[in-house]
Amino acid sequence: MLKLADHWVWDSWYATDDDGRHHVFFLRASRALQEEGRRHQRASIGHAVSPDLEDWTLLPDALVFADAPAWDDQATWTGSVVREDSGRWRLFYTGVSRAEGGLVQRIGSAVSDDLLTWHRRPGPQVEADPAFYERLGEGTGWFDEACRDPWVYRGEDGWHMLFTARADGPEPARERGVVGHAVSADLETWEVRGPLSRPDALGFGQVEVTQLHRVDGQWLLLFCCGEGEASDARRALGETGDNYVVPVELPLRGVDIAKARPFEHESLYAARLHDVDGQTVIIGFRNKEDGEFVGELTDPIPVRWDGERLVRK
Predict the structure, then answer these.
(1) Which spans are transmembrane here (predicted)?
(2) Residues contacting 189, CB < 8 A, separation 6+
(3) I need a surface site. Which of 202, 247, 256, 262 has the fewest CB within 10 A?
């Protein structure tokens, strides 16, 4: 468990170094804010290391907001870490700016030789393209411009990025969450493409914190969405939770979001899958319990794919 006495901890993502140590990067904000709803606009990216995902050693923050004016001078949010062919590490992250009141999200990156000291690259590198995605403005029925939570992976034809986005259209607001998509040959220049999923009556207002991971031979797309932001049809079906899983095939050509099924847990959000000693585990942050925000990472929970759902092992 990763719990900080003076900071809330929430979204997290992971990397394993050459010595087999597990690094976690996570969003953090001071509990001195008192109101947990204020944490998003004060978030920085923390860093800790562990041999087993249970006992953590806190390290200096990986990244904080940039000096103004900049596209990420308000807060830095969720991302992912990949390793380049050169051996250098690259951290993709979300940024929001003060100029827009933190309402417009963009994606950039930073690089490191040791996973400890990070240097920003010129950015942003990915923004919501109005040809495919909803932009901030009147009549959208939503509160922000979604382009965040980059999950980057290497495919047979280059690098791919999945990100949280929303389709522009006449559908109800809580059905327009989609899996955004961009591609790159070098991790520097990105081409934004159309979404890999479509708005759906059994869909979600937000398809947050996506991840691809293979469990028991099956590729899964993991994401999260609060029950209040799920579609009316999804809630009527009773298939709601906080974390959802969709079986997919690679190369990833599309995602049928209607096939998403919840991973059952009493208090877990923005969960991630990670492998430890040949076992897949899921980790997320403890969300609200008894109406109060907790803000700490769980211990790893062993999981398996039963052919239809991701379940505890």
Answers:
(1) none
(2) 125
(3) 256
Tell me the per-residue pLDDT of 52-93, one tens digit each, with 9 for 90 and over.
999 999 999 999 999 999 999 999 999 999 999 999 999 999
Q: Degrees (nearest 5) of the Cα angle 288, 15, 215?
A: 75
Measured between alpha carbons, how far is 167 from 163 in angstroms, rounded to an integer?
12
Do residues 299 and 284 make contact, with C-beta atoms less than 8 angstroms apart?
no
**Span 81-312 CATH architecture:** 5 Propeller (2.115)
Three-state DSSP at 222 gives: strand
| Residue 185 burial (CB count, 10 A) | 11
If DSSP codes are grouped into helix, strand and coil, which group holds residue 227?
A: helix
| pLDDT tier, 138 (very low <50, low <70, confident <90, very high otherwise) | low
- Report long-range pairs for 54-63 (Cβ below 8 Å, ≥24 apart): 54/1, 54/299, 54/300, 56/2, 56/24, 58/4, 59/116, 60/116, 61/28, 62/25, 62/91, 62/110, 62/118, 63/91, 63/93, 63/110, 63/118, 63/120
213 Cβ partners below 8 Å, 6+ apart? 219, 220, 222, 273, 274, 280
Q: Say how far apart CA 280 and CA 204 lie, in whole Å.
A: 26
CA–CA separation, 173 and 167 (whole Å): 9
